[in-house]
Amino acid sequence: MFGLSELAVILIVVVVVLGIKKLPELTRSAGKAARIFKSEAKALKEQDAPGAGQVVEGRVVGRQDESAPRV
């Protein structure tokens, strides 16, 4: 696969091809994308948690005996 020196050469080539002027714009866009991804992941996590922040009243139903074989 790739070693550290090969990855460094590829990174240098990418910087030269994209140009120094576009590099700040590229990193800014990557930062925005990371923030959006993080907020969406957090929203999805909150959405998937059933009853998160809600109180649900109910009653306890008899537990199944742990030593009894399950069918």
From TrEMBL:
Q: Which Gene3D superfamilies does the record match to this protein?
A: 1.20.5.3310
Q: Does the keyword Cell division apply?
A: no
Q: Provide GO CC annotations from the record.
A: membrane
Q: What does the UniProt entry say about where the protein is found?
A: Membrane
| Protein's GO biological process | protein transport
As for membrane topology, the entry says: Single-pass membrane protein
Recite the UniProt keywords alphabetically.
Membrane, Protein transport, Translocation, Transmembrane, Transmembrane helix, Transport
**Matching InterPro entries:** TatA/B/E
Output this protein's name: Twin-arginine translocase TatA/TatE family subunit
The organism is Streptomyces doudnae
